[in-house]
Amino acid sequence: MRRRWYYIKRAIRADRPFFVAAAVLFLMAALAVGSRDWLGAAVSRYGDQYGLSMARTVMKEWIPAAGRQKGRSGPAALEPVLFSYLGSMETETAPAADPAYEKMTARREGADPGKGAQQETGETGRREEAGRPKDADQAGAEGAGQTHEAPGQVQGNGEASPEEGEAAGSSQALAGTAGGRFPGLGIHMEKLADYDYMMQNFYSIHPTTTAGRELMDAEHFLSMDLSLDLGNGQDGSTAQMAPKEPQILIYHTHSQETFSDYPENPEATITGVGAYLSELLEGKGYSVIHDDGVYDYRDGKLDRSRAYTYALEGIQGILQKYPSIEVVLDLHRDGVAEGTRLVTEINGKPTAKIMFFNGTSQTPDGPIEYLPNPNREANLAFSFQMQLKAAGMYPGFTRKIYLKGLRYNQHVRARSALIEVGAQTNTYEEARNAMEPLAHILDQVLRGS
């Protein structure tokens, strides 16, 4: 016993600066919990980064040889399990260079392992593609991500998942319409007013966030008027001249995302898909700016850890130059397991499925104070109205709306949306075909039709 205390005291004396630093850290944490001011945000931001290192050092001092010999028992035998748990935490929650995106990231099961080289790293829930880290998110979309495939959404043959099929069946079995503006859907407002029904059939929620009854109000979402004033004497038809002032901005936080037929087809990129969506919307009378700026490739290498920071700088410059812009769309390509095919058929064409993605700017513990989004409810209403339009006009085209804990630059406009178009297993043709029903859905919502 004396010998054991001798080694313990010796370890403490040898690492006295470390234990002093640990005491200071815990004191700061206690002050933060008590005051809940800016110090709390700072501790929260950096605590994860250094907490694991501190835990590992303490364990190595107190259990110096644990788990290294076969047949050991007692506390020493727990080391492999403890270190395995710590290792998984480090992979899932360690913050990257951009805390506004990566801080709340978490690995999701069934994520994209890539063609021998893709795996999730960390808000959306984002992944690495061919050794290139993708910051959802999550997601995360952050993120994320940028990799937001929700549980129950993976299909291998292009058919709807059981949840999607059940939702479509329930919807079609009901009479009436939602708010009178979603013909063909057949959902009573009383049904949508049921929180459990709404969340089960229309949403997937990542563990980094929560969506309570006070926030997820279908009647409120549908009551919001998200239509645009097209101006220039336009009467709502689709054959007018485009307005002079830009109204819609399309951009790509992760511009380097490609589809399965790249590089054989050099156009098979998410920016190519965005260019086609821009063309379709201009044909419907909107004035569109397509920003093909690169935000995830810097200094000769892919840098998705700060892509959302770079993208925010870019789009804020555009919005300052063109304050008339009211709609901001961040177009992405998701990442899924290689055996997954997110494809359906619309108008006789193979079409990639899409997914609307919302950042909630809150964790299960409450709002993320340094990521405020005054447009959060309008963002949620925007995606929900488009989701209902899609369910009525193109059943099976959309996956469930994915909710994750960060902001994803959706605070810049009330009509902001992050849209995942297919995945790396889709062809460029399938992704491009998806822009036709998406343009139709957007047009319907933006005209209040």
TrEMBL record:
Family annotation (InterPro entries): Spore_II_P (IPR010897)
Q: Which Pfam families match?
A: SpoIIP
Q: What superkingdom does the record give?
A: Bacteria
Q: Where is this region: Disordered?
A: 105-175
Q: Where is the composition biased (Basic and acidic residues)?
A: 123-137
Entry protein name: Stage II sporulation protein P
Please name the source species.
Alitiscatomonas aceti
